[in-house]
Write a structure and sequence with these properties.
Blueprint lengths: L3 H10 L12 H7 L2 H7 L19 E5 L5 E4 L3 E2 L7 E2 L8 E6 L6 E6 L5 E6 L9 E4 L4 E5 L5
Antiparallel strand pairs: 1-2, 1-9, 3-4, 4-8, 5-6, 6-7, 7-8
Protein name: peptide-methionine (R)-S-oxide reductase
Catalytic activity: L-methionyl-[protein] + [thioredoxin]-disulfide + H2O = L-methionyl-(R)-S-oxide-[protein] + [thioredoxin]-dithiol
EC number: 1.8.4.12
Length: 152
């Protein structure tokens, strides 16, 4: 289980190696994504609080990167943070997320990105629920929910 100390170490000392890399030109990303998805994932934008379709999603499944389809988060670790963005306590795998120090807007935060394609996802904060204490605050537009199929 990742902790805030691990997040800080990754942001300062380097991130774990991803399982694979996906790299595209800006034109290729623009062709693949909607304008809003491009603004958020490739230009480090943010959607308005409570505006994202995945804020109120509660179906079982995996939350995958909208750019490269890499699994990022599992629905079992999603929680209601009241912030207006989908929130998670842990990534699906330690090397799924990339961490970088973000000092934009006059504050210091830790940006989270897809470790496979560098898509901006949101930020992680040390104010989440136990046991990890982490809150991954993620833009809905940066993910797609791959719902679990119902077993018969």
């Amino acid at each position: 289980m990742l902790t805030w100390k691990d997040v800080i170490n990754f942001s300062v000392k380097g991130n774990p190696e991803p399982d694979r890399r996906v790299e595209k030109t800006e034109a290729e990303w623009r062709e693949l994504l909607t304008a809003e998805q491009f603004r958020i994932t490739r230009q480090k934008g943010t959607e308005r609080a409570h505006s994202g379709a995945l804020c109120s999603a509660h179906e079982a499944g995996k939350y995958n990167c909208i750019c490269c389809d890499t699994p990022l988060f599992d629905s079992t670790i999603k929680f209601e943070s009241g912030t207006g963005w989908p929130s998670f306590t842990q990534p699906i795998k330690e090397n799924a997320i990339k961490y970088e120090k973000d000092s934009s807007f006059g504050m210091i935060r830790v940006e989270v990105m897809c470790n496979t394609c560098d898509a901006h996802l949101g930020h992680v904060f040390p104010d989440g629920p136990p046991p990890s204490g982490l809150r991954y605050c993620v833009n809905s537009e940066s993910m797609q929910l791959q719902k679990e199929s119902v077993k018969e």
